Design the sequence.
């Protein structure tokens, strides 16, 4: 595994750092509470893939050792992508999601990535409103996908 620099930023009473092995169970549990997991995406595999190389990471916000939020960030050499932005339900609407998003943006800027992209399901009005408030615009695109893990 490539060692990545620590990214610390105070948020409320929390700090943001890169996820480590001891965070995995808490990350998966948070993603499940936040409704981000889907049966066809193994969150453990997603975490392992994001942590495997220098082009992606998972940032975690903790307070007193308790995991409060996550954001997975990476890039393909041209565009940055954000996935799994999650905040502990009891701590939502306190600025932590914005702080995590800023940390992801800073991680991408440090790598000279010029554009940040993310995907939101069309029926998720609350999350769409969050990203609009963060300065994101909806771009008319058709997304194609193909499973490579099925035979």
Sequence:
């Amino acid at each position: 595994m490539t060692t990545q620099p620590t990214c610390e930023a105070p948020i409320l009473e929390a700090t943001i750092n890169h996820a480590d092995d001891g965070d995995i169970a808490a990350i998966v549990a948070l993603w499940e509470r936040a409704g981000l997991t889907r049966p066809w995406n193994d969150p453990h595999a997603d975490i392992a893939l994001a942590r495997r190389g220098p082009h992606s990471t998972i940032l975690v916000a903790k307070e007193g050792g308790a995991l409060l939020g996550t954001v997975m960030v990476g890039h393909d050499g041209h565009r940055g992508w954000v996935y799994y932005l999650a905040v502990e339900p009891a701590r939502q609407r306190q600025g932590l999601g914005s702080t995590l998003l800023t940390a992801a943006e800073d991680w991408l800027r440090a790598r000279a990535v010029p554009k940040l992209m993310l995907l939101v399901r069309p029926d998720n009005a609350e999350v769409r409103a969050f990203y609009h408030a963060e300065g994101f615009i909806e771009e008319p695109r058709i997304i194609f996908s193909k499973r490579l893990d099925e035979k």
Q: What stands out?
A: The first helix runs from residue 24 to 33. The chain has four helices and five strands.
